[in-house]
Amino acid sequence: MRTLAIAAAVVIAGTGSAGTGWAASRALVTAAQDFKVGAHPTIIIDSSAGGVELTAGPAGAVHVDMERKAETEDQARKLDVQVKQDGNTIRIKFDHKNHGMFENASVNFKITAPADSKLEVETGGGGVSARGFSGGIKVETGGGGIDVDGATGAMNLRSGGGSIEARHVHGTVDVSTGGGSVRVEGTLAGKNRVETGGGSIHVAIPASSKLAVDASTGGGSAHNDFGIPDDGERHSGRFRGNIGDGSSGSLEIRTGGGSISLAKM
User: How far is CA 249 from the centre of its chain?
Assistant: First the structure.
């Protein structure tokens, strides 16, 4: 393992809107670390406050950029950020609970890792993005948005209420949010589920797909481009049936009240 840390502090000042009676100032302290890894590494991130951005990069190397933010430079430097290597696993952790005195503190992570990395990410509410990975992705955020692009394999994406987008994907998706909109585009196989508590859902898959589909909404419209008939009454908000012979897997779509669109790519 080779680790290189670089730190710098920049104070960013701003002023609140007229009449609020407060002035905001933030300190930003940056650092970076590098690790050597083997094939199919695992990247585990557990952060209680702040966003996470992951991008596929060269094999054999993991690069981690950290941005600590707090009211003062001293507070930012004291934030407990742990980045460790355990064999072929990189573990990254920031627990805001240990810094209750720093109410507005957060840490943003920007990580470059091999494309075959397995990703496991949990945040208290910050957004998560991942681009170009093939080793499987599991994301859980308390309320931030999730953006996945160009992923292959199994994708398990959960948000307490933020929107979720998965584009140019190839594999199996299990996606749910407490209320945000959901958009999934790509080639699906296996058991797939897309769910939101109340937002709209748009799924686009190839015309040649072979999936058993079951889609329903609690209050919005439901439309598909594959000729699958409505289930029961006209405008029932539900359609069920097979695309092709349904031999490649299943697709379940659920929303508590938004619209559903199942389109051809």
Answer: 24
Separation between Cα atoms, residue 192 and residue 187, nearest integer Å: 11
8 A C-beta contact, residue 54 and residue 115: no
CA distance 54 to 58: 13
Dist. CA 180–CA 142, nearest whole Å:
12
CA 69 – CA 99 distance, rounded (Å)? 12
State the Cα–Cα distance between residues 10 and 1, nearest whole angstrom.
Answer: 29
Using one digit for the tens of pLDDT, what is the confidence trace for 186-229?
Answer: 999 999 999 999 899 999 999 999 999 999 999 889 999 999 99
What's the DSSP call for residue 18? T
Do 248 and 189 touch, CB atoms closer than 8 A?
A: yes
For the whole model, what pTM was predicted? Answer: 0.89
Q: Which domains does the chain have, with CATH numbers?
A: 32-66+79-264 (2.160.20)
